[in-house]
Structures are given as C-alpha cells and as structure tokens.
Write a structure and sequence with these properties.
Layout: E1 3-8, H1 10-14, H2 18-28, E2 31-38, H3 42-48, H4 58-65, E3 70-76, H5 80-88, H6 101-105, E4 114-116, H7 120-130
Antiparallel strand pairs: 1-3, 1-4, 2-3
Bound molecules: inosine-5'-diphosphate.
Keywords: ATP-binding, Cytoplasm, Kinase, Magnesium, Metal-binding, Nucleotide metabolism, Nucleotide-binding, Phosphoprotein, Transferase
Subcellular location: Cytoplasm
Main location: cytoplasm
C-alpha cells in the first residue's frame, strides 16, 4: 500500500486546523500510521526543502517552518501520493480550488497550512527524514 508524508505547517497548528486537516484524510478513507508534534530543527527544514535551496524565498521558508510546532504524519492508502496532492490543492492561492484544503483554508503562498509529498520517491525520502529516530516509530 502506498505511503506519503503529510505535515500541518506552523500556521495550521497556530490557527487550530490540526483536527480539520486530519479529518479530511480520515473521512477520505486513508490510514494514519504515525504522528508527531515537533518544532523542526533548521537542519531538518533545510533538508526537507533542499530542492528550493537556490530560490530567493528559501531563507524565509526555513524560518517559517522552524517558527513553531508542526504535525508530521505518515499516511497510507491507495494512490495516496497523487490523491492527497489533489486534496491539498495548488501552491498559489489564485489556483487552489475551493473544496481543496488550501482552497478552503489558506490565502497566501508562503503560509499555506499543509505540506504533502509530490511523488512516491519524495514520500520515501521525507518519511525517512522526519521519522529517522527509533523513538519516532510507532
Ligand atoms: P508545494 O508545497 O505545493 O509542494 P513547492 O513548490 O514545493 O509547493 O514549494 C514549497 C513551499 O514553498 C510552498 O508550500 C510554499 O510554502 C513555499 N513557496 C513556494 N513558492 C513560493 C514563493 O514564490 N514565495 C514564497 N513561498 C513560496
């Protein structure tokens, strides 16, 4: 069964959206395997967003991700990588359709409440990054 890494970002935690976001994936029929509330280190945040390290917004992105607790999660289900991206919606609020998580709950590009892996390979990389220590395993 396919697995993905989903994360409620610091703005989502601060705004009290953890339950709403988890609920969307539960009611879709997916299974939550692991969950941890933690404030990421700069190293983990930089590694998570390594593909963006040359972008002008990289510093701001890492600062934002490390600004407070996030909810790091492993979810499982059929075609979950592609379907969860559809449920999350587009990065740019102008393109995020109503009915998607970002379309309903987010209004800016930089603070968009949730991250979801964009491919099976990214999911594997991100799950091993965020759940690296034995203590994190269920
Ligand atoms: P994704 O989160 O939809 O996969 P990515 O392109 O991988 O989008 O970008 C990662 C994150 O970086 C976005 O969720 C957003 O928070 C931030 N980001 C992307 N583009 C911009 C930008 O142009 N300005 C500020 N932040 C951005």
């Amino acid at each position: 069964m396919e697995k993905t890494f989903l994360m409620v970002k610091p703005d989502g935690v601060k705004r009290g959206l953890i339950g709403e976001i988890i609920s969307r994936f539960e009611t879709k029929g997916y299974t939550l395997n692991r969950l941890e509330l933690l404030t990421p280190s700069v190293e983990v945040a930089q590694s998570h967003y390594a593909e963006h390290k040359e972008k002008p917004f990289f510093g701001e992105l890492v600062e934002f991700l490390t600004s407070g607790p996030v909810v790091a999660m492993e979810w499982e289900g059929e075609n979950i990588v592609a379907v969860s991206r559809l449920m999350i919606g587009k990065t740019n609020p102008l393109d995020a359709q109503p009915g998607t998580i970002r379309g309903d709950l987010a209004s800016t590009m930089s603070q968009n409440v949730i991250h979801g892996s964009d491919s099976v390979e990214s999911a594997e990389r991100e799950l091993s990054l965020w759940f690296a220590t034995e203590a994190s395993h269920v």
